[in-house]
Amino acid sequence: MLSPAALSAAAAAAVWLLALLGPGLSLPAEHDSEAGFTLCDDCFYRQTPPRGASAELPLHHHCHRLPGGQALATLSRPTCDTAVCSAFHLSHGWTGKEKEQRGETVTEVGDSVKVAVPALLRGGAGDLPDAASPTDSPLQQWDSTVAAIIQSSIMPKCAALGGGVYILTGAGRLGAAEDGDEECQTKLLWSAVCCAPPEGKDGFSVGVIKDTQAERQVSMKELEEMLGVAELFSEGCGGEDRETAAATVGLHSDGLHGNAAKTEADETDENSETGDPHAKEGKKESFKVSLPEERFGADAKSENADVSHLSEETTAELVTSVSSSEQQFSETVTEEESNSTSTLVFLLSTTLSILKAPLCPVFSIITEFPEQVTHVFQEDLEVLSALPGDTFTLFHLLMSDLLSWTGSAADMLLGIGETCFSSVCYCASSMVEALLSSCQTGFMGIGTLAGDTVGIFGGVLDNGWWVTKFFGGRLWEQTENYMGAVVSEMGGQAQAVGRGLGRLACRADVSVSFIEMATLYVSPHPDDFRSLLALIAAEFCPSPRPRIISEDPPASLNVRSRPALVLAAAAGDGDSVLSGASAVAWYLAFQGKRAGMDSKQQSQVWQWLSFADNELTPVSCAVVFPLMGVMGVDKKLQQSSRAELMRVLKVLDQTLAPRTYLVGESLTLADMAVAAAVLLPFKYALEPSDRKAVTNVTRWFTTCINQPQFLKALGEIALCEKVGPVTPTPKGANVTASVDSNNSTENGPPKTEAQLKKEAKKREKLEKFQQKKEMEAKKKTQPPAEKKAKPEKKELGVITYNIPTPPGEKKDVIGALPDSYSPQYVEAAWYPWWEKQGFFKPEHGRKSISEPNPHGIFMMCIPPPNVTGSLHLGHALTNAIQDCLTRWHRMRGETTLWNPGCDHAGIATQVVVEKKLKRERGLTRHDLGRENFIQEVWKWKNEKGDRIYHQLKKLGSSLDWDRACFTMDQKLSYAVQEAFIQMHDEGVIYRSKRLVNWSCTLNSAISDIEVDKKELTCRTLLPVPGYKEKVEFGVLVSFAYKVEGSDEEVIVATTRIETMLGDTAVAVHPADPRYQHLKGKTVLHPFCERKMPIVFDDFVDMNFGTGAVKITPAHDHNDYEVGERHNLAFINILDENGLLINVPPPFLGMKRFEARTAVLQALKDRGQFKEIKDNPMVVPVCSRSKDIVEPLLKPQWYVNCTDMGKQAADAVREGRLKIIPDHHLKTWFNWMDNIR
């Protein structure tokens, strides 16, 4: 037995330690704002808090994360110091193992708001919650009572249904206070419980309250009225069916009696301490009145025998359990010393568990770390063990080459030494980098598992490694360009050890001898950009550079264009000649290591060469050559060429935005070729205003032309300041001849007779143009002739009707008419008079509309225009025809009505209003909520809808405006509902789950007419909403499925590779002989354990591709029908937002087009990727959001048109309806006979 002094000291120490660790034990409010409250959405049924709770008095929302991961949401008033309501969710299979350790039951969050941790989240695993203490508040006592009810009665019932439980517990009203300033008083203690089973099963909900009368059960409707809310559980939870009634009786018989007894005992103890015997009697009487049998009569009658038997057994067990709890509680109250000891043990155990919890992962990782390091070193030692043999072989081959190459010993010795050193550095650097990367991964893993305790240590290691890697990388990048090129080239040779080394040395020897004797023939014209490109590339060649000659090549070389490079071969093999700017520049740049560091960069350089030749050069010549006098001036052609040049330069400007050079981090042949192509426009055509529009291109071009090699080849380049004619050079015709000859010889065989005739016509036109220019010059030198004065035309202006006429009064037609016709004069003042006289009403000229009219009745409803916009020319045409019909029937004496109105255009209006909210207030419809967003739509309709009516009146349409309708009006909505219900009862309208056109941006299904078909001929990048980078379309990806039980594989192809995650079969044609032996076989999915059958179906085209087709029934219209025929599984892999579901990691949760890249890479890693090639295709695009439309399985409403289509077809066949012209009959019958 501990002394009181020891107990006090131990308690003080424990309290001090808990205060020190308080931040770890408290219940932090992760987000006090509405924006962050979404972290606790799962605490509420359907992720929706009680609706209407903050309509009159705002409530503050708090989200708490308990150390075990459980979430708790609370609502509180700004003026109260305690939470008004708490909410949490217990999922199916919850056994209490997730609950928190026993500790504090009350904490403070936010603005000193006290929050009680629910008893169900504090109890031990599998036990009933703690009994309420006499010192607990009424809310805590009520929480213990409700916890016992839920765990003993509701949880077993809900677990049998396989559902989760949503619990709301609170004190007082959630809506506006009834007593003015008494909003913080807790007159009413209440709890609402919702059992939410999986789809297809009925749940139930239970409400329990404790007010001034007693504990009792109420319906959800009563509880919502008491609390002042519209809905506690979104759209209701469960229904009043037989199972709900059974659950209700089970609750009263099992839970509420036992807990009411416990509450009575607690209150009796309190009253005994105060010495008020009357209070005891009052409490007992109150308890007896609170559980009358009549209250359960209606529910008990609907209860079946099984549930009643279960409830009686549960009641007996619970009464026994509660009685023992009362006895134990009484003993605890009487033994104060034992209570103090248990409190101290509780505090010390809690402290030790808190100190031990974060250290356990650390100890586990420290013990596992040596094993991880050993594993890393084992992998690296395998690489190191192979290094000596490769190095020895490399040295052996190098030394043998040194002995054999006696003719060029000095040059070859230097080259081989550089090659050897770079190869060793490359292998060693790769090995060290892999080792350091593995060590970094190990240390970062330790830091991650250690959590916040060792987070700083892991961060220091991570940052230290990053700094080391950064400075090491920078140091490596500063090495000489030549050494980098050698390392890149020899890295590939080292893989085959000595296999390619001899060929490389031989090629280097031959190339050196070629360069030594090379001769470069170029054009002498200073603006021949093709020759300038070759000169720039020659400046980058290693010494000695080719000899430059500006004369024509000898006739013996048979070279018809410049630039041309003559390479003298050894031993009389004959000279090698390269002609054409691209070929010569590539050869020279390759010798100077400017054609790309590796095969990828070389491919990119070739692409930019093609871009310069095919895109930039034609438009540059079309813009500059007229200024240089090479070709005639055509203003229209020159303007279009200039616009095209700016378009191409803007594309180039976007590419250069994040880059210094086009390929890699140094200047390459790509920069030389593109710079040469835009050289003349920058010199003669692009003014400063034009260069501002392409700042990135200007910056890049200036960088290039200021390189020493460019300056040596081009000299100083002066950029254009103002566009004007260029002074012709003495040899100005050479550029034309050079370009023409290049086009004729470089790109193909000599020109045909037709091409020569075409060129002759061009020259003839050019001569005529020159003669015209000479005539204009002569006219300028002659004195101008006097022009005869022309008589001035009389400006008539716009004639308007200016006679004052009050609205509704008849127009004055006595005055003289204007000299010319004026619509403004003729149409003025008539329409208000027509409306006032009631000419457009069916009642006009009749005593009553119900009076029979012997002439008949004509009634027509206007096709309602969309409220989203204004009327266009099509509306003017159709409304004019309808107005003519209406006036004609009215003139015949018929009772005539033309009814006006406009359509709400649901999706279009939603898009317009959403854009307006985003632009003006930065909000979305989700931020406002459904009700507020509908109010914004109505507000927008009232502002914009009258514009359409005003336009119809301007057209003079004879509409009865007193009968104007809007499709969202109450009477029209009721009519729609009535018609919908009738057609549904008749089977015309039905609901079915089929593939629909789904827009992930709009989160809505759209009709076929709202889908644009975008045709692609090859690989194309398209912008998609929600993605920063453009997405690739127009390609066909081929990959293989492995046949189960064999090494055979089936190759399939698709344009949407991400949908292979939802494949459930592979289809082939029944007559295809290649796959007859696979009948009854299955293939294996590479990313999951799914076995997919090989089905035989006639829809497969066995002449297309491999003749095998992947089947994705849930995401393709053709595959859907195949899945129906063969009873395949329908696996939906996309949710409404375009995120992947029902797929294995790591693809789960990815965006659909990000998963496209990930799936392709995963197939490559597994070796099942085959090829990718261009493929013409049609991409469905949403006409409103421009999103890519996805086929998605969704339940939708459909109209059964089979009978209607038959009637329409029979009407034409029987002659009752005639289609004009007759050739449309085939289309008519095709639609009507095949409609669904």
UniProtKB/TrEMBL annotation:
The top EC class is: ligase
InterPro entries per UniProt:
aa-tRNA-synth_I_CS, aa-tRNA-synth_Ia, Glutathione-S-Trfase_C-like, Glutathione-S-Trfase_C_sf, GST_C, Rossmann-like_a/b/a_fold, Val/Leu/Ile-tRNA-synth_edit, Valyl-tRNA_ligase
**Quick check: keyword Protein biosynthesis in the entry?**
yes
Signal sequence, start to end? 1-26
In terms of Gene3D superfamilies, this protein maps to: 1.20.1050.10, HUPs (3.40.50.620), Valyl/Leucyl/Isoleucyl-tRNA synthetase, editing domain (3.90.740.10)
Residue ranges, annotated region (Disordered) = 251-290, 729-793
Question: From which domain of life does this come?
Answer: Eukaryota
Domain GST C-terminal: start-end pairs: 598-729
Answer yes or no on keyword Nucleotide-binding. yes
Ranges of Basic and acidic residues compositional bias? 275-290, 754-793
Coiled-coil portions = none
Q: Which regions are flagged for Polar residues bias?
A: 735-747
Q: What is its EC number?
A: 6.1.1.9
| Pfam families per the UniProt record, alphabetical | GST_C (PF00043), tRNA-synt_1 (PF00133)
Annotated PROSITE patterns: AA_TRNA_LIGASE_I, GST_CTER
Recite the UniProt keywords alphabetically.
Aminoacyl-tRNA synthetase, ATP-binding, Ligase, Nucleotide-binding, Protein biosynthesis, Signal
Family of this protein: Belongs to the class-I aminoacyl-tRNA synthetase family.
Listed name of the protein: valine--tRNA ligase
Species, as recorded: Ilyodon furcidens (goldbreast splitfin)
